[in-house]
Design brief:
Helix content is 35%, strand content 18%. The chain has 30 helices and 37 strands. Helix 2 packs across helix 3. It starts with 5 loop residues before the first strand and ends with a helix. It holds the Pfam family PP-binding.
Length: 1064
């Protein structure tokens, strides 16, 4: 039976007393326990606690016990009632973290006021704050209204706001901001005046209150963060939310006990901040305010001085705290628990809590204003909550339930399937005020009230809940779903990028539909942007690499657009990025076209002037003095100035020493006139043969790879994979009607050389082989870091490509342990002419050259699949000849080759008949035929293999150190039968002709392998140095079938671990 994705928290006691009853009980049980510390407020505030035992030696600021805080609450509640405020009234607060906020909140609950805390920052957002106040008024139709403002400078705005609602209200201003008793300027009553008691019950004496009477209804309105629309109001059940959390904390691994000190810097208008504050009071803990808001240094100093055991933070606060230097002796060793919420934390954030701050535990709390309560409890190690790249959000709290359903469904999906989080529990609100988005709430068949969160999540094998992302944030790139949160989590694991607080949003793209773009908090250089992209490529794959990196400054902002609660507004950020991206792409297209075309035209002009036959020989960065007689140089320049430009000064043009400087002058002049491409420029560009094809090609490259494309860049170095290349060339074909070969993006030629080739060809459709422009043998190979981080002293793994020569054959490999760096090598012969041939020794020498550039000294880890394994062996042999150490060779399913002069010479058609070219599998898409250039390379590989005679390793050098080979056999397929199968293919070809679609029997590819031994490799390194494992699948599944790839990678990891451990 399939197990569904449903999680239940432990049972919750039936009784959930009102918060006021729980607070009063704490006053009776712990009257002298410190209740409140406000480091930024005077110790004698309102005359409460001046002569009590709460004053601790050497400690500054306000310090009230539970008895004294209760006295202050009763005084304020009495003062409100004497002014006509009571049950059925509305209390709106614009107050920061202070004693006044605590007093007013508890007083509101005691006398039955509806409590509505709003951020003072909201006063700068008239539309939002007016909406929130109006929502509260319409929701409760109050008999009277009281508003509390924290600072004098806010009073005018608050008064105007409340007056706009059409009723009078009691206006109270905090003490300490210039307001004193008797100072009622502009109708504002000082807080101190309301605190003045008039009866003997207000004396500082022990009071035993009667709990038998029915307490007024305790209710608050909190507003959602409003990341996509106006904030939605929620009636929060005052008792259920914090009581559920408080009870879970009392029973946890790092319990919260009476008298524990809890540092609070979260905004009090945020549901998370409110929950943390009230849950601490329910547990009779000591609330410590380090100030009115969050200041990193003040928080750290307060935790250390007050010996706080708990605090709650959002990830952005951790970013700031990580910048505060802490020596080992300065670690916050009193901290038993840091609670994280507000946004999904990354692994790096968790490490800051446990490592940088020195906390004993970190809790990942997944909650929403709507009353969602899911938590990991206090984890004492990052490994307890991190699974690969995913950070767990834990399990439902007592009384709560979670189920994962397909979008639009209410039926739970199977375990490990992604779906939407549905929540039910006693803390859940009944709905949004005014029935906004009411379809998110429903009553299930079980009779329980449920809420659809809009969050994507999955229940893992460990039974824990893992967030995947938001449905509204998902990016669809070429039909593949990308979750921005996954990319953000990967970047968050690197401290350099973590500090940039990267946000991933979508941007429009002509080829892929949508692409991810990284937005960061500050300007960075091109090298850092490239490293950011490389990090994503290495850890996640090419699909997830951001198409661009943009700073918020580029968007005209100083910070991300945020909600009043401080959350990044992804919807607004996406709108800004889409507008910026569209405009920038247009500018990029013009700029790339202009520069490449100008360089090409100037090179041709100088070639004619200097008598050169080949304009490609000219380097745009070399002095022009080398291309003409010095006596004629200025004359030639003046002639070109007349032909090439009309808006550059002649003096400036004569002074230019290189073609690159000439292009700069033209572009600068164009910018100064605020036109990037004039009609005359366009006309001159259009006069170039095939300019429309060149423009379309450059546009496709610019859209895919972004700005700063140097015409001297080799196309193979653009890192475009085969599927993306087809999409880009399809775009060129749709715009121009010309089909360029897919091999284009895998040539060693530069963009400038391709442009020259297109310009010199009358009909671009006739271009079938770009490589024919060069007769030179390749001098190096392509390499790509596909995962991990190279580290000094730690060998990287170098994987040689299979017969196709395609480096990215190894991209499906999952991440190896310890962030092992894995380089995929691409064949240097991938783009050679179809009739070209090469030897294993020749290819291996080029691979070794590249390997030693990337890692100059051994020991080396080598590997390869199929033909790649043969090449890896020859690489090891040549490295040993060079005096280097080889730690081991990973051989993925290839026996020792044995040359046979009688074997039939293969051709592409014969290999096709044999079944050598299986289609490329693509998840959710039709299979794709292997491109012709890879077929040609496979043919050359087979020919090279049939002629290769490997040499025993001991003949490479006098070094007797063994070179182990770890062979991973595919359990099905017999490559030794290839010679006989080629004969069968030749018979089919002779019988049916070149157009035949007939194939040989594919049995040889599926038949069980008879021998699982060393496969001949013992002859090369000794039987004791060959270890074999088997995967019960066919050869082509080794790196193509996702399930089989997992098995392959696991066995590779076994060998790597063994070799690395033997080294240590």
């Amino acid at each position: 039976m399939v197990q569904t994705s449903e999680l239940r928290g432990p049972p919750l006691p039936d009784t959930m007393p009102p918060l006021t009853d729980q607070f009063r009980r704490n006053v009776q049980l712990y009257p002298d326990t410190l209740a409140l510390v406000c480091t930024h407020q005077p110790s004698d505030l309102y005359g409460v606690g001046v002569s009590s035992r709460s004053c601790e030696t050497g400690k500054q600021g306000l310090r009230w016990t539970y008895r004294e805080l209760d006295l202050g609450i009763r005084r304020f509640a009495d003062g409100l009632q004497r002014r006509g405020i009571g049950e059925g009234s509305l209390m709106v607060m614009f107050v920061t973290n202070s004693a006044e906020y605590v007093i007013a909140t508890w007083a509101a609950y005691r006398i039955g006021c509806l409590h509505v805390p709003l951020s003072p920052r909201s006063l700068a957002h008239a539309r939002e704050v007016t909406h929130m106040v109006r929502t509260a008024v319409e929701a409760c139709d109050p008999v009277s209204v009281v508003v509390v403002a924290g600072k004098r400078e806010w009073t005018a705005q608050v008064a105007e706001l409340m007056q706009g609602q059409g009723f009078d209200c009691l206006k109270i201003m905090e003490e300490g901001e210039g307001a004193a008793v008797g100072d009622e300027a502009d109708g504002w009553t000082p807080f101190a005046e309301v605190m003045q008691g008039t009866t003997t019950t207000m004396a500082q004496t022990d009071v035993v209150e009667d709990f038998s009477h029915a307490a007024p209804v305790e209710s608050s309105i909190f507003f959602t963060s409003g990341t996509t629309s106006l904030p939605k109001g929620c009636f929060v059940q005052a008792s259920a939310f914090p009581t559920t959390v408080a009870r879970s904390w009392r029973a946890s691994r790092q319990p919260m006990r009476p008298g524990d000190r809890v540092a609070i810097v979260l905004p009090n208008n945020h549901a998370f901040g409110y929950m943390f504050l009230m849950a601490a009071f329910v547990n009779a803990a000591t609330i410590v305010f380090p100030g009115s808001g969050f200041v990193p240094e003040a928080l750290i100093e307060t935790i250390r001085r007050e010996q706080c055991s708990h605090t709650a933070l959002v990830p952005t606060m951790l970013h700031a705290l990580s910048g505060v230097a802490l020596a080992p002796k300065q670690k916050l060793h009193s901290l038993r628990r840091v609670v994280l919420a507000g946004a999904p934390p990354t692994e790096e954030v968790l490490r800051i809590c446990l490592g940088h701050l020195g906390a004993d535990g970190v809790e990942n709390f997944y909650g929403m204003t709507e009353g969602i309560v899911v938590s990991t409890d206090a984890a004492e190690s990052v490994d307890n909550v991190v699974n690969g790249r995913d950070v767990s959000i834990g399990l439902p709290l007592p009384g709560a339930r979670v189920k994962i359903c397909a979008k639009g469904s209410r039926v739970p999906v199977a375990m490990e399937a992604v779906g939407e989080v549905h929540f039910s529990g006693p803390s859940l609100v009944k709905g949004y005020i005014g029935n906004r988005d009411d379809d998110k709430f429903y009553t299930g068949e079980d009779g329980r009230r449920w809420f659809c969160t809009g969050d994507k999540a999955v229940v893992g094998k460990d039974g824990q809940l893992y967030l995947v992302g938001r449905y509204n944030d998902t990016i669809i790139r070429g039909g593949e779903n990308i979750e921005p949160s996954a990319i953000e989590a990967v970047l968050g694991q690197t401290s350099e990028f973590h500090m940039l607080e990267p946000q991933i949003v979508r941007a429009p793209d002509n080829v892929a539909g949508e692409v991810p773009v990284a937005v960061i908090r500050q300007e960075i250089g091109e090298e850092t942007a490239r490293q950011l992209k490389d990090t994503v490529r290495a850890k996640m794959g090419a699909l997830y690499v951001p198409a661009g990196v943009i700073s918020v400054l580029s968007l005209g902002l100083e910070d991300y657009p945020r909600t009043l609660a401080g959350k990044v507004q992804k919807s607004k950020l996406t709108e800004l990025v889409e507008a910026y991206w569209t405009a920038r792409r247009s500018r990029t297209r013009n700029r790339v076209h202009s520069r490449a075309m100008l360089e090409m035209r100037l090179k041709q002009a100088w070639a004619r002037a200097s008598g050169l036959n080949d304009a490609t020989m000219i380097d745009v960065n070399v002095s022009l003095a080398g291309f003409a007689d010095v006596r004629l140089l200025d004359s030639i320049k003046e002639h070109l100035w007349t032909d090439m430009t009309s808006n550059v000064s002649l003096a400036g043009w004569i002074a230019a020493d290189t073609i690159a400087e000439e292009v700069d002058l033209i572009e600068d002049a164009a910018r100064s006139e605020r036109t990037e491409e004039s009609d005359s420029d366009q006309a001159s560009i259009d006069s170039v043969p095939n300019s429309y094809v060149i423009e379309a090609l450059l546009a496709a490259i610019a859209y895919e790879k972004g700005d700063h494309i140097d015409p001297a860049t080799r196309l193979i170095d653009l890192g475009v994979d085969s599927i993306t290349s087809i999409a880009l060339l399809n775009q060129v074909r749709q715009e121009t009607g010309v089909s360029l070969p897919s091999s284009l993006f895998f040539t060693p030629h530069t963009i400038s050389e391709i442009i020259d080739r297109l310009q010199s060809t009358p009909n671009p459709a006739d271009i079938l082989d770009f490589e024919s422009a060069s007769e030179e043998r390749p001098r190096e190979c392509f390499s790509a870091l596909i995962q991990g981080t190279p580290k000094p002293g730690v060998p990287s793994l170098f994987m040689t490509p299979p017969g196709s020569g395609y480096a990215f054959s190894y991209e499906p490999l999952p991440k190896f342990a310890n962030d092992l760096a894995v380089y995929a090598l691409g064949s240097p012969f991938l783009m050679t002419k179809s009739d070209a041939s090469w030897t294993v020794e020749e290819a291996a020498a080029l691979y070794v050259k590249t390997i030693r550039k990337l890692q100059p000294e051994g020991p080396y880890l080598l590997g390869g699949w199929s033909m790649g394994a043969i090449l890896a062996y020859e690489e090891a042999y040549q490295l040993r000849q060079q005096g280097q150490t080889v730690m081991g060779i990973l051989n993925l399913d290839m026996p020792l080759p044995r040359p046979d002069p009688h074997v039939l010479e293969p051709t592409v058609k014969l290999l096709e008949i044999v079944g050598f070219y299986p289609a490329i599998r693509r998840a959710g898409k039709p299979d794709m035929e292997i491109p012709s250039y890879r077929r040609q390379h496979s043919l050359a590989s087979v020919r090279a293999k049939l002629k290769y005679a490997p040499r025993p390793m001991h003949t490479a050098s006098d070094d007797a150190t063994p070179v182990p080979i770890f062979v991973i056999w595919a359990g099905h397929g017999d490559p030794d039968r290839l010679p006989s199968v080629l004969v069968e293919a030749e018979e089919i070809l002779q019988k049916f002709g070149l157009e035949t679609q007939e194939r040989t029997s594919q049995e040889w590819l599926q038949t069980p392998r008879e021998s699982m031994g060393p496969g001949g490799w013992a002859e090369m390194v000794g039987e004791e140095n060959v270890e074999c494992r088997v995967i019960d699948h066919a050869h082509h599944d080794t790196l193509m079938d996702p399930e089989v790839v997992e098995c392959t990678a696991h066995l590779m990891q076994v060998a790597i671990d063994k070799w690395l451990s033997s080294r240590s």
